[in-house]
Amino acid sequence: MAPRGTARMYMYINLLVLYKTVYGFLLNSSTESLNETLLSAATTSAPSADSPEYLTRLRWADSAFTYIKSLNCTEVYFTSPRECNHMLNVRKRNVVVYIAQEEDSIDGEFVAMLPDSGLSRAGTHHGVVALDPHPDANFGHLVIVFFIDKVDSQADCERTKGTYIGNDECMKLALKHRCRNAIERHRRYNTDADLISSSRQARKMVRRCEINFLPLVHKQTSQEPAVVDGISQGYEQALVCREDLLDYSLCPSLRPSNETLNLVCNPIRDNTRRCETSHEAVGTRCEQFESCDQAVLISGGWNRQTSLTRHSENIVNMYQLLRRNGFQQSSIKIFFANGMHREETGAESVNTEIFPAAMKTSMRFHIRKLCGRPHCVDTLVLYLNSPSRTDGTMLLWDVNKNGKVEADEQYTIDELLDDIKSCKARSVQIIADQSFSGELSKAVRKSNDHSNVLAFSSGKENEYSYMSTFTDYWTRLDHSHICTEDVFQQIKNTMLKSTPDFGAKGHDNEGPGPLTIFGAPCNVDPPFSANELRLWYRGCQNVPTEVWLRTFFSVQSASANNDNAASQLPTSSADNANTVQQESHIEESLAVT
Question: How much is the pTM?
Fold first, then answer.
């Protein structure tokens, strides 16, 4: 029989499981009855006092937590001093625990990989533990990862710079490959004056040594993953959030597993027009003699563990905001995670196609066409809400489930800026609610090719994005008469955990802007009536025939001049110019067709 103290502990655990289950229902469930949830919680058995698996998990989690609480922040190199101090003060109830554990205790079963980098101490491991000290932040953000290995003695563990945690087990901190050497070289080859002048660069280096995503942990196998419908099924994630551990945080609210299993639109599997990898699949709208407000909403998700319910809610709320402000259904294109059917949870009110963010080519074709054709777009709104790397790169979706980000599974800032370069829309407004989004604002400020772009970011270049706070502020405000820069300033004065950033070329970063989110003049006295806004600014407006034709013929004239200039060049140069001209025609056809 278990000791009385142990029995009392497990009674508390049972109560905790019941509380967490009911609390999760109240927050997230919309289909199950409360009675069913209570019954499920009552019949779910918490770990028994003699469960070795549970005791092992608890010992691993407590050992990892003790490790981060004993850090010396003057010597830590895998994160910033600010983050280190946060970990020293964090409480268990604010830390989410993920564990990969082999129940039959076979050594050397697990392999771990990050989407954006290799890991030191690569190889197989007995177990893996990950602590998330920022459960309210959006990925990427700091995650502390530990490997658990079997050893013969405590001395063997300490010899490899590990921490002995009993039961012949050694815990070692996982690090990004070669990061420590890069930081030490930076410190070694810079004088004190250089270090002061390059302090921002040093902070960036430390930030980029952080592990900012949960690793994909899978069992070691010599077999290649199965391929179904032309797409690899990848590896099964063994790193699981553990909500049963006493005193630790609730697990995040994930989208239902059946909604994140496969791509909603698989171009290889689905031989349909809507699954083509071009703008034809998206149905880009550019009508003659008409200019419309258009929007593109991008939420990558990356995988099931980072595609949370709040991200689908963000997309729905932003869609509803745009619809309230006159954007037509056909003018709002959504690229979300692995895609979503309208009948899925939370998407019932979205009356437009929801494409997978994995359709990167279609997404870029669509944005380029909107920006490339004169008078197609009056105001272009881009909403970004994806897991992000420290350089601002957005992760879309891990299509092949191999845990490694590939070129067609990410959307870089350079690619985005290239897609909207010299955009012919009257105004481009970017709302970026994602970690490290300040990198985008900074890039827009430095650019000479984005004079009509306004970038509103949820934080500075080295800051995380938290919950849905930034998006919630945008979607709850009335945008009928207020300038978007004034909206941003209100939000900036209210945000607590991050400092929203603004980027625009040639703008006063703190000054009010001239347009609303749908392109109407703002701060007008007296303000426009609702009928005037509807007739003159919201949705689509007619472009006068004279204006449209003048623009059309000017484009044709410019194209003819380019052709004449190329024909007068020497042969070799003309050949080169011909190549450039062909590329230009490709771009032009992409923009105009």
Answer: 0.83
